[in-house]
Amino acid sequence: MSEATWREVAPGVHVRRHEELKLNCGLVVGEERSLVIDTRSFHAQGDELLDAVRQLTDTELVVVNTHAHYDHCFGNAAFRDSQIYAHSGAADGLRRTGEHQRQQVVDHLRATDREQLAEQVRETEIVLPFYLVEEDTVLDLGGRTVELQYAGRGHTDHDLAVAVPDAAVVFTGDLVEEGADPAMEDAFPLEWAPTLRSLLGRDSSGASDTWVPGHGQVVDRSFVEAQAEQLASMAERFSEVLGTGLAGVDSLANAGRGLGLTEDTLRLAAVRALELRH
Ligand SMILES: [Zn+2]
Q: Which residues surround ligand 1, an ion (CB under 5 A)?
């Protein structure tokens, strides 16, 4: 099993960083219930996460999937006795794309000689979240609350962030990415920056200086502000080109150069911007 370590970023607020994909899962421990944030990529990884959670708390567990990408929710099978929260769009997305995501992951693992992992993904039952929200929702964990926040479209059309107001921590899912560019495959490139700014402006997260991205290192508020700036600049440049009526992938990607985003990211963002124009 791949290596992973817990880090307590605030009292009772833990981040589990996994070597694989540099994925971060979260645990917020309350007096009566605890919240697990994201469940990893397949059933056995979910089981392993559950064991690790049980080292830290024996309270009842509640789960949230930040979004419907496999690495954040295919481990749900290990948490099926818990209430699993997500945005309703995540349940729709998983229903629509779950099997396709599975096939892509299996193909990739096989192509890179990881047949055993491929088999585990293949055998994993996709368990849909069934406590569905569409707006900011407070969960009482006993002695503390957490807030599930929907601030608009960004990395997907259904990203939830999780704020822990008493600890000034926000878990962002893949709305924030550290160590790699924001991932554009299912993104809304022109709407992502306003969504991040809306999160930054929330009462419950506004004062937070500990932001936990879906992947990579824990960051501070200024990092999130900088990523919002970068995405806003890209969107502004894309909009200018889209306004000329001469927009293509090349012209959009060209316009986005110099912002610190890779060519691949810009091209994916350009494809999405063009798809979404209609
Ligand atoms: Zn994602």
A: 69, 174
